[in-house]
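Reviewers of the previous submission asked for a worked example of the structure-prediction workflow described in the proposal, so we include one complete record here. The input consisted solely of the amino acid sequence. No template or homolog information was supplied to the procedure at any stage.
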Amino acid sequence: MRGGLSGRRHVLVVAPHCGSMLRLERLEEAAAELYEVLTDPSLGACAPGLPHGRSALIAGDGLTSDVVRKTVEEAIGHAARHHAALVLAFLGHGFAPGRTSSLHLMCEDSTEDLRHDSVNVSALLAVAVDHPGVDGVLGLVDTCHAGGAPPPAEDLAAGARGGRTRLGLLMSASLGQSAVDMTFSRHLSELLRAGRHGAGGTLRVSDVRDALRAVVVGQDITGFDYDGDGSAREPLWIARNARAREGLLGGLGGRLAAEELTEALAAVDPRMPVPDATPDLGAALRCRTELLGHPPGSARQRALQAVDGLLVAVRTVEFVRGWLGGELTTARIRHALHTLLAAEGRLPACDPHLTDVAVVDELTFNHPATDRDGRRAVARFVALLGQACGKHLDDPELRSWAQRIEAPVEVNDAIEHAARRTQCQRLGLVVSLHSSLTGDWPEVLDGWLLLDGAMVHHEQFPSETADRRGAENAVEDAVLWAEDHARTLNLPLKRLDLAVPSGLLLAWRPEEAGVAMLLGIRYEVRLHWSNRLTPDAVLRSIEPVVAERWQSIAQHQAGTPVDWLAYEDLADPHLLRGHLRNGRYTRGIGLTQHPGADARLMEMLLAYTPVLLWPHAADGFPRERHGCLDRSWWAMPGALARAYRDRWRGVAGADLADLRAVWDDEDWLRFCRFFRTAAPPTRTRDEGTP
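From that input alone, the workflow returned the following C-alpha cells.
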C-alpha cells in the first residue's frame, strides 16, 4: 500500500563558500531555507543526516574539500545504519574539469579545474547509492554545470548491490550552463512549501522539475531518475505535496487518505473534488455514487476503495471518541498501536504526536498487501485500545460499529485476538536470589506465582550447590512448579521475572539456562535488582526518586530516555556518586562499556535508576550503535528478549542482543513494596503444590 510514516529519511545540505571564486551572497540563506523545508515533518519529513542529533546543515566559510567529503561519507554511513533514504543537497560553485562530465563542488581550498582540492559529487553519489543499507539517494544540486552530477551508468548498474540501487537527481542547470544567484534553490523551497495541484500526495523529481522550468529562466532544470530496486517500499520523493492536504478539511481524515483520494480520483476524473472528512460523510457518499456512474476498470476500483477507506476511517475515529471518551489518551493510543505492530513484526512510526486520526489513517491506507483493505488492522487496534481503556469487549456499541464499517467478521476476530493476548498476560512467575547475605549464589531461591498482579502461591526452592549450576536447577524447579499451577488454572505461563544480586547480574545470563530448552525461548525473561526487595536505609530514602524516574521514562514520547555513560564517566567513583546525588542523570542509565566485575558500581547506579543497560560484547556499545535502541525502545524490555531469540536462531541484524538490562518498572517496584509490607508466609513443598 501507500508509503506511510515508517520509511525513514535523512538529509544533509552542503553549501561551502569557495575562497578562489566570487562570493555567493545568498548561499547560506538559500541553504538554510532548503534545510528548513526538508526537515519540516509535514513536508520533507527528513531527520538530520548526521549522528548524535547534530545539525546536517553544513554551510558557510571554512569548509575544506576534505571536511565536506568526510561529512558526506559520515552521512552515508549513518543512513545505512538506520536503513534510511538519504537526501543530499549540494549548493555553491561547481565545475566539470576539462572535457569530462563529472561535477566537482568547490570548497574553501578549491581552485577551478583542479580536482584534488574539490569534491567529486558524481563519485560521492555513486558511493551513497551502492552502500548496503541506504534506502535510495535523492540529490538536489544547485551549482554551475550541475547536469554533470549523475554517476556513470556502470556505477549504478553494478557494484556491491548488483545494480539494486535507486538515485533521483534534480539539477539546476545542464552540464555546460551556469547557475545564477541560487535561483534554483530559492524557487525549490517556495515550491515545496506551496505544493502543486494534481501532483499526488508526494512531489517527485519529475513533478518538481516541470514546475521549476516554468519559473527559473535561463537555466535548463534537469532531472535524472534511476530505479533498479524492485523491492523498494515506495518511490523516491522530495517532499509531501502541501496541496494534497487541502481536500480534507473536516478533521477526521488523515494525510494518507488525502493523498490516496487525490491521486485515485484524479485518475478517474481530474475535475472530481476530494470529499471532506466530516462526521456526516455526505460528500464522501455522494462521491461514491458519482464514481459508480463511471465505467468499470482498475482506476474506478482504486477510487472506490479509497472512498471506502475514508468512510471506515471517519466512522472509526468518531466511534472511538464517543466510546472511550475521557479514557482516550496519547499513552493508550501508543500502547495499542505498538502492541498491534509488534504482533505483526512491523515497526511503528517514530512520531511523538500520535493521534487517533493519524493512527487510523495509517492503518487504513498503509496496510500490508495481505490485508485487503485495512479493516483487519483497524479492528485489532480498536479492540486493543478498548482493552487499554478498561472497556469490556462484549459491549454492544462495538458490534454496532462493526456493522457500520462492514467488518463484523474482522471485529469478532479482533476481539478473540485481544482476549487470547490478555490470557497470556495474566500469569507470571517471580524467582528471587535475594536470600544470599553476601550477594553471591544463594542456598535457597524464592518463587511467587502472580495472577493478575496478585500473589496466589509462594514456594522456596533449595539450591543443592550454592553455585550457578545449583541456582539454575532451582530456577527450573520453580518453573515446573509454576507450570503445574498454570495447568490447574488453565492459563499459559509466558513471563519469568528474576531478581538477581548486583554481582551476579554481571556474570549470569539466566535466559540461556535450561537443560532441554533455553528459558529465553520458552519465556520472556526479565532481570530485576534483588536489593530492592530488602533495601537498606539509604536505598529506601531514594525510592520515591526512582519511582518518579520510572514515570518519566514510561511517559517519554520519542527516542531513548537514557543517559549514556562512557568509561571516563565511571573512572572516578566519588565524582560519579556526586553526579548521582545532585540529580545529573534523571533518566535510565546506559553504559557504553561492560563494567567488568565491579558489583559496587552496579549497586551505585541501580540505587538511582530503575533502568540500567550495559553491553556484554567485547567492543562495547558505542554511540553509533544506539540507533537500534531508538527504534526498539517502545517495545522494551520485550524487544530485548526477542533480540536474544533472533541471535540464537542466526537472524542477522539483532544489534540489541549485545545489551543486558535491569528493568525495574512500576510493576516490579510495586511488588517490592508488597514483599516488604506483607511478606508471604513460607510454605513447605507439599503445601505449595496443587
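The CA atoms of residues 37 and 44 lie 6 Å apart. We consider this example representative of the routine output the project will generate in years two and three.
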